[in-house]
Amino acid sequence: MANNTFVGFNFPSSSTTSSTDSQVVRELQPVTTWNRDGGYTVTRRWRGPIDSLVAFSNGGSGEADYHGTYFTGATGIVPGGAGRDGAVSTDLVREDGGQLGVFSATWVTSDISTALGNPAAAGRTAASGDLYQESSIWTLDGNDIEKDLFDCPVVKACADALGSGGYGFAGRCKKAIENYRNGLDEVGDPLTDPAGTSFLWISYLDGADVTTLSGQSSILGNANLFIDLGDVAEDALKGAAAFSYSQYVLRNVKTVQYTSSILPHYENVNRIWTTANITTLLAAETTGGGRPIDPPTSIVAYTLPVLGVLGTVLNFSKWLYRTPDVQQLNNGKWQITREWWEGTEIATSCYRVYA
Prior knowledge:
The chain is built from nine helices and twelve strands. It has helices at residues 50-58, 112-115, 153-162, 169-181, 201-204, 207-213, 225-238, 275-286, 307-312, and strands spanning 26-27, 31-35, 39-49, 89-95, 100-109, 133-148, 242-256, 271-274, 318-321, 325-328, 334-342, 352-353.
């Protein structure tokens, strides 16, 4: 038996008897798995002599397998694909002393029916919009912020009731408490009897403040703002200096190949976005031919669950877009993380509005 003849591999009539001919390569049963992140992961495998597998994987004219399947080229599995023809990974494992082997290629797709036969039809090429993205995870987290006591809603409501005269009201309140703790009156002079003098807002605030506040409806619905402001003073004198405020953080983490055309999106960083701006971006990233795995949104509205509720029902419609984070993973792929922080309490004067 000649050294270049391998048992179990029949050469087509159109083929020579060379072990480097790709037509002796035969496809094995594909391996398919499914996960919630990226849909189906399909690995197609071909077995044959090592040199034939190399010729088949390199592609080119005449380099088809036994059944006439091309791995690359204009008539290949993924026509015109970037990198390794749209596959997220490829591998060549030697068997039987290194003369035979198995070549494998893996795709991620949402369409199992076409992936097993033609991954080009399963959304993995640039024309269909997936751009070699393996997963895209969206989360809506909570972020608790510690804020100064005098930034509380009661003080803000008092300032709003004062109108233009309310500018600096929180600072005036804070200074009043500070003076009283130091045994001083409203102008900074020592109190005659610090130990016997109770704190009264009416003694420390400007007369116009007191007059304007008098009789206003309470934000708690059970007293007027002046009484509520007294509760703030009591808390401050007990030692309360801050309170916790809840903020939402919308986060997207993408994992892509090095050949991916997906960009971190550095446009409009550190700007105030509306909920509509975010959903518009989602639609733009989803409709480039129908990306199957980015993001998990309504097919019709391209809106994330809860995000729509935050933007309409709760009126949390302003989001600060933070600087994207890009990291190279140890497998040569890239991870892109983007965040939008709900901006109800963000100073809009410090950031431009995304338009």
